[in-house]
Amino acid sequence: MTIEEQTKTDLIKYKLEQARETIEVVDLLLKNDKFSTAVNRIYYGMFYSILALALQNDYETSKHQQLIGWFNK
Length: 73
What we know:
This protein is mostly helical and 73 residues long. Helix content is 82%, strand content 0%. 5% of the residues are buried. The chain contains 3 helices and no strands. The chain has one domain (3-72).
């Protein structure tokens, strides 16, 4: 595995961990009736997960609309 491949793999793992941690917070928010913030965290958890998927498929962007467009294809 090249350094570039390892860096990509590490970034994918990081994004998936970021997604998992973000979504874990949702349970606490829901238990405390913080519904709007819970929806926001769910959105970002999904965003980080889709970013990892995009990276795995050699698509890179930090723009939400571009990522959503790519995912919809």
